[in-house]
């Protein structure tokens, strides 16, 4: 119950975060940073709560992963809409996540999601460009520091684009290894 509430909180934060990235000025940068950090904390806490209270389940895991997917993809799409990043990474995340779900349930005929090493770490790191771009928007930072942080965000997006492509390829050849 608590785990699902934490996941639902993150789901509820997805649209405001995406909107804040797509239309700068809709929300203060400090509020955006706080909301993203809250979402990340809820992502860490929901799994811990599920295990602690004995409520972990494949449905809960699916809810968590779908929520993460919606949160990061919509936020990255907001960044793309604002012209801060290209649209390739959000598109690739849709492909990778679809492949993840379809492979798990239909190809491998599992009753829960079948994670891959690279896909798991991509999922963790998809949150970090959101942190960097929201920090770069803070008006209290010197312009040069904001530009350095923004450049770091762009480099991370390119790295994640490459690792997402690698994850898609790895999942595509996984059945051949099995």
TrEMBL record:
GO terms for biological process: phospholipid biosynthetic process. Pfam families: CDP-OH_P_transf. The keyword Transferase applies. The chain crosses the membrane at residues 69-102, 123-143, 155-174. GO terms for molecular function: phosphotransferase activity, for other substituted phosphate groups. InterPro entries: CDP-OH_P_trans, CDP-OH_PTrfase_TM_dom, CDP_ALCOHOL_P_TRANSF_CS. Residues 1-20 form the signal peptide. GO terms for cellular component: membrane. Keywords: Membrane, Signal, Transferase, Transmembrane, Transmembrane helix. Belongs to the CDP-alcohol phosphatidyltransferase class-I family. This is CDP-alcohol phosphatidyltransferase.
């Amino acid at each position: 119950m608590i785990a699902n509430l934490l996941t639902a909180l993150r789901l509820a934060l997805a649209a405001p975060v995406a909107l804040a990235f797509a239309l700068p000025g809709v929300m203060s940068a400090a509020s955006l940073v706080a909301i993203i950090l809250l979402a990340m904390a809820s992502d860490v806490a929901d799994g811990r709560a599920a295990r602690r209270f004995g409520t972990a389940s494949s449905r809960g895991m699916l809810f968590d992963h779908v929520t993460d997917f919606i949160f990061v993809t919509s936020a990255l799409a907001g960044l793309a809409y604002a012209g801060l990043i290209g649209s390739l990474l959000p598109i690739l995340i849709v492909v990778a996540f679809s492949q993840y779900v379809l492979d798990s349930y239909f190809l491998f005929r599992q009753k829960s999601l079948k994670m891959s090493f690279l896909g798991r770490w991509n999922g963790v790191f998809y949150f970090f460009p959101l942190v960097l771009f929201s920090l770069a928007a803070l008006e209290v930072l010197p312009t040069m520091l904001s530009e350095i942080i923004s450049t770091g965000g762009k480099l991370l997006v390119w790295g994640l684009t490459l690792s997402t492509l690698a994850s898609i390829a790895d999942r595509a050849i996984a059945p051949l290894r099995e």
